[in-house]
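Exam revision sheet. Question 4 asks you to relate a sequence to its structure. Input first:
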Amino acid sequence: MDEPDDPFLYDTIEIPTVVGLLRNILTQYPDNGQIIKELVQNAEDAGATVVEVLHDTRQVQCPSAHNAVQRFLKGPALCLYNNGIFTQEDWYGIRKLSDSIKKDDPLKVGQFGLGFKSVFHLTDFVTIISGDKILFMDPSEPEEKMCRIIHLNKLTDICALEDYLHIWGSYIKPHTIHDGRYPGTLFWFPLRQNPSKISDTVYSFEHVVRLFESFGVEAPVCLTFLKSLEKISLKRIIGDDKQLEIVHEVELTSPSMSQVQQKRNLFKQKLKECNGFPAQTTVCDYEVTIQSIQGKKTQQQTMRTLHYLPGTNEASSVAWRGKKSSIHMPLVGVSAPISPHGASWPTGHIFCFLPLPIERANNTSLPVQVNGFFALDQNRRHVKWMTQESSNEPDAQWNEELVTTVVVEAYFMLLCKVLKEMTSRSNSYHVETWYSLLPDIKSSKGRWNKLATELWSRLKSYPILYSEWFFLPEIS
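Answer key, structure tokens:
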């Protein structure tokens, strides 16, 4: 027997275009130094040690280029180089819009699917060179042509070698193209000269100046909790004579830098081996000087940094109570200034590997910097804390417990290490340094007051008042 006629009319759900999705993403990610932070974080995830951000002010183009790529090979532009190389997953992830391939990887915190797209504040056309490939991305093209990929050794098939060298000569040499493998990653973003479907913002010279200034506010502390990057440079090329100006440079230095590198690499290796969840507590502790050079102004601050990941069965660990599809790793860090007459960079910042925006909501009032694998809001600018409305949200619960259980343990561990060294024969710490690291309960509030109170509760059984006859019992 035949089924009766279907009485319904059917229609589709309207799906936004790629350009429409991009415009929406740009409303979530601010047009400021956050753009550079996203690119720095992705370089860190790639294992790079160096990042260079270059504002190329030259009016350049490639007259010999194939029509399909001429719009990509122009200047003025923002160029970003790092010495990491794209993996197959990165090439895939860079083309994702609504999600990130890194959300399920506890060892990577960048978001190629989302955060990277903030670069469309300043450009309509993205070029990426890494390893043996080059990608040209134009979201305004038909879907099947939005991403053009060509092998590096075929690059001269679509443009003359001298034109490439005229544009990218600072970073690419002739043998690199002939050999067909670039030993790093190069991003090239021609600055938007006219309003477009993606954005109405015309990115002028002044826009890039403000972009650099915005990133420069946080630049001196950006390297504090990273485990690969050692140097970030902001540069500018002025005129056709390629006069190079270093705008801002931040670098990690140490008389024993090789030992610091060894410790950081070993810690990364341990995290990789256990996929971020070790059976035993994993700690990485080192002393390093952060040097910031901006124009004629040079500042230095020596920091004692401790990365801490509790074992899965340790009392100081916390458990994720949300969906199992979302991975959270209880990795935290504490970094304390130990040079009493060093740079006067403010402390008390909250980091999620990179510093969150410098504002009251992201300050702890503690004398140290605090890092954690925190759950952040969509634009990654603020931590999701517990409120009356969010009391049952797993993200908020995770963040609160991370502070009061794991961060407090890392802070206490750092203080114990400094305290133990205060009485060693090789001690180089000034007594003022020790007292400057202790939290002030009166100035801290909420969760941070709870942390400070717990620290003092633990410290009261230790000889923390320095004197000439100071004797230190065994500290575990």
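Marking note for examiners. The chain has a mean pLDDT of 87.
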